[in-house]
């Protein structure tokens, strides 16, 4: 009789731990999709931003080409490769910063309504992206803690739950404020 009670308690705990791992995995997946949505919004905005800037700064072709190349690199990263996507998006952010900095050198561009709207949209997307990154990293942290902590690590290993990579900047140069020199 006591053996059945102990088995029942262990089974209930195992089910609760398993469900907790599933919930954490789903939260991490949902958080990643939030980042993906923001990255897509930013990626869709870039061609419009580039076209607007081209009209004012045609001789800045190398800067504009770099943004497009970085955008294409970021979009080419395989889905689910968080580390590579983080690195590619960091390089894109750096290149975008240089485009926005061009506005300082071209007062007419800065005063252009289209550019101002695009810049505001980009700033909003960047803020939303920052929030999505924090949410994802929190969800990844929670899942990683459960995957590594006892006793849930026993179930995690058994059912194939794996740690998630954090979405972070790995290259210190990506953290630097972009410099534009003429």
TrEMBL record:
Alphabetical list of Pfam families matching this protein: LemA (PF04011)
Classification via Gene3D superfamilies: LemA-like domain
Protein name as it appears in the record: LemA protein
Keyword Transmembrane listed: yes
UniProt keyword terms in alphabetical order: Membrane, Transmembrane, Transmembrane helix
UniProt family annotation: Belongs to the LemA family.
Keyword Glycoprotein: no
